[in-house]
């Protein structure tokens, strides 16, 4: 058994080692080969240029060179132990800023809060619930556009450096939450973890009651 565990550790280490030195052209997204011809791929390619690479390790998508997206499917969310090890290894390696997209459905929804807590509290990874691959494609496309604007305008990146741009990209993917309010939330609370812990009253000061309710619903805190 120990030999098997050691082999698993070696396999995970080799996968994590691949998550660096990724060069993503502006306006493109690099996807793991396993996503080719999937529903997500077809939805994504209508908005951005998709390049494939079979050597991305545990990361599924790179919307920019420094931002790696890990996709947790419905079955993986239900049986999370395998993905948990991969995410922990990725965090330990600290080679890429990671965001998790988790497929939260009627079947897997009951398991989402535990996974959300692990990603946010234990690893410090942003996590976004998505109902389907098509919705995930829309969020990924938004990330590509956001990162492209920042890379094309270095002055904008310097001017906004007090807010983590990865967190800003993640927050802007919440339906109905634009860049201005997303930035205000991050400036006020400092992290997505703190936003998740905030009360409806606290969020209402920045978003109004309806906006606060929408964010809490998205984070499954309603």
UniProtKB/TrEMBL annotation:
InterPro entries: FAAP24 (IPR026985), PND (IPR040646), RuvA_2-like (IPR010994). Residues 21-144 form the Fanconi anemia core complex-associated protein 24 pseudonuclease domain. One of its GO terms (molecular function) is chromatin binding. Pfam families: HHH_5, PND. GO terms for biological process: interstrand cross-link repair. Gene3D superfamilies: 3.40.50.10130, 5' to 3' exonuclease, C-terminal subdomain (1.10.150.20). GO terms for cellular component: Fanconi anaemia nuclear complex. This is Fanconi anemia core complex-associated protein 24-like. It comes from Crassostrea virginica.
